[in-house]
Amino acid sequence: MTIQVTPAARAHILKSSEAPVSLRLWLKVTGCAGFSYDLSFDNARDGDITYAFEGFAIHIPQQDAARLAELVIDCETNVTGSRMVFHNPRETARCGCGLSVELKEFA
């Protein structure tokens, strides 16, 4: 299992804080589709899986690891600003507003 961070996302992360940066990514149970991605500046917690990148690390709770496998984190910029975008091959649907996603379940 691995996650990828695009060059645009990496630049956005490093611009937002001084290195070394520690981020935590997890799935929050919410919304009409079931889950939302939550990415914030935070340290690793017991049981997290840590992915090290140049200048930063992303920590993922063990219980979310299978659902986030093969995730690509990107950053999109337009006239209103920048936002992190998550491309997950395990998504089966998104709600109308795009804030929550439905994910394949694993046995």
Q: What can you tell me about this protein's structure?
A:
- The chain is mostly beta strands.
- It has a single domain, classed as HesB-like domain (Hypothetical Protein Aq_1857, Chain: A, Sandwich), CATH 2.60.300.12.
- The protein is 13% helix and 48% strand.
- The protein is built from 2 helices and 9 strands.
- Strands 3-2-5-4 form a 4-stranded mixed β-sheet, with no helix packed on it. A 3-stranded mixed β-sheet has the order 1-6-7.
- A hairpin with a 3-residue loop joins strand 2 and strand 3.
- The two termini are 16 Å apart.
- The mean pLDDT is 87.
Features:
single chain, 107 residues, mainly beta, Hypothetical Protein Aq_1857, Chain: A, 2 helices, 48% strand
Topology:
Layout: E1 4-5, H1 7-16, E2 21-30, E3 34-41, E4 49-53, E5 56-60, H2 65-68, E6 72-78, E7 81-87, E8 91-94, E9 101-103
Parallel strand pairs: 1-6, 2-5
Antiparallel strand pairs: 2-3, 4-5, 6-7, 8-9
Produce a short descriptive summary:
The chain is mainly beta and 107 residues long. Helix content is 13%, strand content 48%. The two termini are 16 Å apart.
Number of strands: 9
Tell me about the largest β-sheet: 4 strands, mixed
Structural class: mainly beta
| Low-pLDDT segments, ≥5 res | none
Radius of gyration, rounded?
14 Å
How many domains? The number is 1
Q: What's the end-to-end separation, in Å? A: 16 Å
* Percent of residues in helices: 10-25%
CATH-derived architecture: Sandwich
Q: Strand order of the main beta sheet, please?
A: 3-2-5-4
Task: Assess the beta-strand content as a share of residues.
Answer: over 45%
CATH topology: Hypothetical Protein Aq_1857, Chain: A
Number of helices: 2
Highest CATH level, the class: Mainly Beta
Structural shape: globular
Strand and helix order: EHEEEEHEEEE
Please tell me the overall pLDDT.
87
CATH homolog superfamily: HesB-like domain
